[in-house]
Design brief:
alpha/beta, about 200 residues
Protein backbone atom coordinates (compact mmCIF):
# COMPACT_ATOMS: atom_id res chain seq x y z
CA UNK A 1 0.00 0.00 0.00
CA UNK A 2 1.29 3.44 -0.92
CA UNK A 3 -0.51 6.66 -0.14
CA UNK A 4 0.83 9.82 -1.72
CA UNK A 5 0.26 13.42 -0.79
CA UNK A 6 1.39 16.47 -2.75
CA UNK A 7 5.02 16.42 -1.64
CA UNK A 8 6.93 13.39 -0.44
CA UNK A 9 8.87 14.30 2.66
CA UNK A 10 8.24 11.97 5.58
CA UNK A 11 8.23 8.22 4.99
CA UNK A 12 6.05 6.03 7.19
CA UNK A 13 7.30 2.43 7.16
CA UNK A 14 3.96 0.91 8.04
CA UNK A 15 0.73 -0.33 6.49
CA UNK A 16 -1.33 0.40 9.61
CA UNK A 17 -4.35 2.53 8.73
CA UNK A 18 -4.48 3.79 12.31
CA UNK A 19 -0.91 5.11 12.10
CA UNK A 20 -1.45 6.54 8.63
CA UNK A 21 -4.55 8.44 9.72
CA UNK A 22 -2.92 9.70 12.91
CA UNK A 23 0.18 10.94 11.07
CA UNK A 24 -1.96 12.69 8.46
CA UNK A 25 -3.57 14.70 11.25
CA UNK A 26 -0.17 16.32 11.82
CA UNK A 27 1.62 16.28 8.46
CA UNK A 28 0.37 16.57 4.90
CA UNK A 29 3.53 15.50 3.09
CA UNK A 30 3.93 11.80 3.69
CA UNK A 31 4.61 8.63 1.78
CA UNK A 32 3.41 5.34 3.23
CA UNK A 33 5.37 2.18 2.42
CA UNK A 34 5.45 -1.35 3.78
CA UNK A 35 8.40 -2.18 5.98
CA UNK A 36 10.48 -5.26 5.11
CA UNK A 37 10.75 -6.78 8.57
CA UNK A 38 9.80 -10.30 9.58
CA UNK A 39 8.48 -9.45 13.04
CA UNK A 40 8.06 -13.04 14.15
CA UNK A 41 11.64 -13.89 13.23
CA UNK A 42 13.00 -10.97 15.24
CA UNK A 43 10.85 -11.85 18.24
CA UNK A 44 12.12 -15.43 18.07
CA UNK A 45 15.76 -14.33 17.73
CA UNK A 46 15.58 -11.85 20.60
CA UNK A 47 13.33 -13.88 22.88
CA UNK A 48 15.54 -13.12 25.90
CA UNK A 49 15.43 -9.36 25.29
CA UNK A 50 13.34 -7.35 27.73
CA UNK A 51 10.02 -6.21 26.31
CA UNK A 52 10.79 -2.49 26.17
CA UNK A 53 14.01 -3.07 24.24
CA UNK A 54 12.19 -5.47 21.93
CA UNK A 55 9.61 -2.84 20.98
CA UNK A 56 12.42 -0.35 20.33
CA UNK A 57 14.34 -2.87 18.24
CA UNK A 58 11.32 -3.68 16.07
CA UNK A 59 10.59 0.00 15.46
CA UNK A 60 14.23 0.61 14.55
CA UNK A 61 14.40 -2.40 12.22
CA UNK A 62 11.25 -1.26 10.42
CA UNK A 63 12.70 2.19 9.75
CA UNK A 64 16.05 0.76 8.67
CA UNK A 65 14.40 -1.77 6.36
CA UNK A 66 13.46 0.94 3.85
CA UNK A 67 16.35 3.30 4.54
CA UNK A 68 18.30 2.49 1.37
CA UNK A 69 15.24 3.29 -0.72
CA UNK A 70 14.83 6.74 0.85
CA UNK A 71 18.33 7.90 1.75
CA UNK A 72 17.50 11.62 1.94
CA UNK A 73 14.21 11.41 3.76
CA UNK A 74 12.88 11.18 7.28
CA UNK A 75 11.67 7.63 7.92
CA UNK A 76 9.36 6.63 10.76
CA UNK A 77 9.30 3.10 12.10
CA UNK A 78 6.91 2.10 14.85
CA UNK A 79 5.94 -0.99 16.78
CA UNK A 80 3.68 -2.05 19.60
CA UNK A 81 3.80 -5.16 21.75
CA UNK A 82 1.37 -6.45 24.35
CA UNK A 83 2.50 -8.12 27.56
CA UNK A 84 0.15 -10.01 29.88
CA UNK A 85 1.29 -11.91 32.97
CA UNK A 86 4.89 -11.66 31.81
CA UNK A 87 4.18 -13.14 28.39
CA UNK A 88 4.28 -11.58 24.94
CA UNK A 89 0.95 -11.74 23.11
CA UNK A 90 1.31 -11.66 19.32
CA UNK A 91 -1.13 -10.81 16.56
CA UNK A 92 -3.59 -13.57 15.83
CA UNK A 93 -3.21 -15.59 12.66
CA UNK A 94 -6.92 -16.41 12.49
CA UNK A 95 -10.21 -15.78 14.30
CA UNK A 96 -9.76 -18.86 16.48
CA UNK A 97 -6.47 -17.44 17.78
CA UNK A 98 -8.12 -14.05 18.26
CA UNK A 99 -10.90 -15.62 20.32
CA UNK A 100 -8.37 -17.41 22.52
CA UNK A 101 -6.44 -14.16 22.99
CA UNK A 102 -9.52 -12.25 24.13
CA UNK A 103 -10.70 -15.06 26.42
CA UNK A 104 -7.24 -15.20 28.00
CA UNK A 105 -7.22 -11.41 28.50
CA UNK A 106 -10.60 -11.32 30.25
CA UNK A 107 -10.39 -9.84 33.71
CA UNK A 108 -6.65 -9.21 33.41
CA UNK A 109 -4.39 -6.21 33.35
CA UNK A 110 -1.96 -5.99 30.48
CA UNK A 111 0.66 -3.58 29.22
CA UNK A 112 0.99 -2.01 25.79
CA UNK A 113 4.51 -0.91 24.91
CA UNK A 114 4.69 1.41 21.91
CA UNK A 115 7.87 2.61 20.28
CA UNK A 116 8.72 5.16 17.60
CA UNK A 117 12.11 5.26 15.87
CA UNK A 118 12.97 7.91 13.30
CA UNK A 119 15.86 8.13 10.82
CA UNK A 120 16.86 11.27 8.91
CA UNK A 121 19.32 11.08 6.03
CA UNK A 122 20.30 7.55 7.09
CA UNK A 123 21.13 8.68 10.65
CA UNK A 124 19.28 8.43 13.95
CA UNK A 125 16.95 11.39 14.48
CA UNK A 126 14.41 10.59 17.22
CA UNK A 127 13.19 7.76 19.43
CA UNK A 128 10.49 7.38 22.05
CA UNK A 129 8.98 4.40 23.83
CA UNK A 130 5.93 4.68 26.07
CA UNK A 131 3.70 2.33 28.02
CA UNK A 132 -0.01 2.07 28.71
CA UNK A 133 -1.76 -0.22 31.15
CA UNK A 134 -5.16 -1.68 30.30
CA UNK A 135 -7.78 -3.90 31.89
CA UNK A 136 -9.83 -6.16 29.66
CA UNK A 137 -13.15 -6.52 31.44
CA UNK A 138 -14.79 -9.82 32.36
CA UNK A 139 -17.21 -9.66 29.49
CA UNK A 140 -19.36 -12.67 28.47
CA UNK A 141 -17.98 -14.94 25.77
CA UNK A 142 -21.08 -14.12 23.74
CA UNK A 143 -19.92 -10.52 23.55
CA UNK A 144 -16.47 -11.64 22.41
CA UNK A 145 -18.07 -13.76 19.67
CA UNK A 146 -20.17 -10.77 18.59
CA UNK A 147 -17.12 -8.53 18.44
CA UNK A 148 -15.09 -11.00 16.40
CA UNK A 149 -17.98 -11.52 14.00
CA UNK A 150 -18.36 -7.80 13.38
CA UNK A 151 -14.66 -6.91 13.29
CA UNK A 152 -13.19 -10.09 11.81
CA UNK A 153 -10.66 -8.32 9.56
CA UNK A 154 -9.51 -5.64 11.95
CA UNK A 155 -8.86 -7.88 14.97
CA UNK A 156 -6.17 -9.78 13.08
CA UNK A 157 -4.18 -6.56 12.67
CA UNK A 158 -3.90 -5.74 16.37
CA UNK A 159 -1.54 -7.21 18.96
CA UNK A 160 -4.28 -7.91 21.49
CA UNK A 161 -6.93 -8.90 18.94
CA UNK A 162 -8.86 -5.75 19.81
CA UNK A 163 -8.83 -2.09 18.80
CA UNK A 164 -9.20 0.80 21.22
CA UNK A 165 -11.31 2.50 18.55
CA UNK A 166 -13.99 -0.12 19.16
CA UNK A 167 -14.18 0.40 22.90
CA UNK A 168 -16.85 3.08 22.77
CA UNK A 169 -19.21 0.56 21.16
CA UNK A 170 -18.27 -2.66 22.94
CA UNK A 171 -17.09 -1.27 26.30
CA UNK A 172 -14.58 -4.06 26.96
CA UNK A 173 -11.62 -2.02 28.21
CA UNK A 174 -10.65 0.17 31.13
CA UNK A 175 -7.67 2.43 30.54
CA UNK A 176 -5.64 2.35 33.75
CA UNK A 177 -2.62 4.33 32.56
CA UNK A 178 -1.38 5.84 29.31
CA UNK A 179 -2.41 8.27 26.62
CA UNK A 180 -4.20 7.72 23.34
CA UNK A 181 -1.13 7.69 21.10
CA UNK A 182 0.51 5.01 23.21
CA UNK A 183 -2.62 2.87 23.19
CA UNK A 184 -2.91 3.03 19.40
CA UNK A 185 0.79 2.15 19.11
CA UNK A 186 2.14 5.43 17.75
CA UNK A 187 3.84 7.82 20.25
CA UNK A 188 4.13 10.66 17.77
CA UNK A 189 3.59 14.07 19.37
CA UNK A 190 7.12 14.70 20.67
CA UNK A 191 8.57 13.79 17.28
CA UNK A 192 6.18 16.22 15.61
CA UNK A 193 7.28 18.98 18.00
CA UNK A 194 10.95 18.32 17.20
CA UNK A 195 10.30 18.04 13.48
CA UNK A 196 8.41 21.32 13.29
CA UNK A 197 10.94 23.08 15.54
CA UNK A 198 13.84 21.93 13.37
CA UNK A 199 12.11 23.18 10.22
CA UNK A 200 12.01 26.77 11.49
Amino acid sequence: MKLYTKHKQVILASSSKTRVNYLKQHLDRILVVRHKVDEKKIKDEFIETNFTDLARLLAKKKAESVMEDYTKNIIIGSDQILVCEGKLINKSENLSDAKNNLINLRGKRHTLISSLYVIKNKKFYFEETKEAEMLFKKIPQKKIDEYLSEQKKEVLKSVGSYRIEDNSKYNFLNILKGDHETIIGFPLKNFIKKFLRDKK
